[in-house]
């Protein structure tokens, strides 16, 4: 079933009775060429690119809940490529290029909106840091525009520019940055993978990983044993738990990151806005709700609800930056489980177990990385070679200390990234 303007018109005129399910609900096979553990954005995109780019169609994606029920549906939907360090910079640049062609590729509206992202700075030192970052982005081939105070005011006239503690000095504009609809991304990749023969197995929790003679042979699940000689672990905040089934201890801590949505408002915020003196970021959804978030809850947890002190902290930052939002009513909040690495950068690598691959450690950057992550892990699983844009995301950098990518310069404390 392909989507088109004509198809939408025809269905609208005939009672919308011709739509079909977006993907099948198959029974598990006894054996697959590859199994992906995790039916979130990264797992679904991996399966999609394995099928589309590498011709592997005998693949299963195992999701313990339902498609789109994990972190891919629990984030603030931001898409950007404004990273500074080599390794991160080229990867996110590649991922953004995939975003820009994603809707045509999937024949699905993921509501990708390149509305522009503005990182504000509030001191001379921050200005210098963003000048460096903007230059690095330009060298990488991405877009960056340095704005002075007047330039920010033209884009964001509603900010509190004269705040005594945090006056706005300027900002770094990333015009190609923006947002996408998080659950639509999951549905689009799920539909695309299913069309290419991938089995999407929902309510199929992995309970064990079978290893023989140093190589993976399959997995145990709540829907029976499944054999496979290639297995990818792509489970975000649950990475440490699933890897432990294979006898691995990952350098990962899991923390909760809350997100918030207000009631629907008339369009008032045209960009993604990031506060430079507090971890706060906001955009406005197509339905009118203000979508925003801030810091982690700062303690290790697997709970998907967050806590009230951090909610208060985020609201304080928002009011400091843009007091005009004070009367907006917050409708709901939720928590995503972040898999935090010691250097704040991800892992896409083989493990010491033959045929077992790991994709984790996305910290705050998971949603924007969905296309690039899946493309790179699929390349690694299919060819055995690292995809060039993700070549520095090695697991052994935490054992050797070589190649660490501390993007924010905050050291080896997981929850500071």
From TrEMBL:
This is Sarcosine oxidase subunit beta family protein. The keyword Heme does not apply. Residues 33-379 form the FAD dependent oxidoreductase domain. Coiled coil: none annotated. Gene3D superfamilies: D-Amino Acid Oxidase, subunit A, domain 2 (3.30.9.10), FAD/NAD(P)-binding domain (3.50.50.60). Keywords: Cytoplasm, Nucleotide-binding, Oxidoreductase. The keyword Nucleotide-binding applies. GO terms for biological process: tetrahydrofolate metabolic process. SUPFAM superfamilies: FAD-linked reductases, C-terminal domain, FAD/NAD(P)-binding domain. It is found in: Cytoplasm.
